[in-house]
Amino acid sequence: MKKSMMIALSGLFVVVTIMLCTNTNKVYEKKKYFSSPNEIIDIINHKQLGALNKDGVFVTTSDFKECLSKRKRVTDSNFNYYKIDGEILPENNTKESKEFILDDYRRRVSMLEGYTVPEKLEVLTLTGIGYSTSDLYIQNKEVECSNPENIDINIVFIDEGEGWVIDYFWISTNGGEDVLYNQ
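The structure assignment produced for this chain is given below.
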């Protein structure tokens, strides 16, 4: 091949690679901004959090993605619950428990390169019933859950400057060990 043809093909390869790597369609762009963590809790309690896509794969809904930080939207949220009915119980939201959750959050995000812990943080534990995606089935065209679980969701909310979002959570089920860490 001629040298000019090799240069042209190399240039085309570089241009195509750049176009493929800068595709922003995979990242969900926020449309709603929350003025308090309580607004996010309302979404968690009253909206469907997950659905099956056309390929039958469970994905988080747009309503739930609105609640997640940019870091969580770029990575995978690993939130495997279709629906949650929860409440904030004072006995599960003591100063000591909040400090424990916050310490764990800070320890985990300190391992992330280039990530700084935001100044505005709120921590709480949501206690209730979770409907896991692994226990879902369809009956009469309605999604049902065969085995609802008692869950505690420890959540760290941050203010990204454009509103409050969830940046970290971990879930424990039926009073057992933590089954999902999510940083």
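Interim note for the steering committee: Residues 3-21 form the longest helix (19 residues). Residues 28-175 form one domain.
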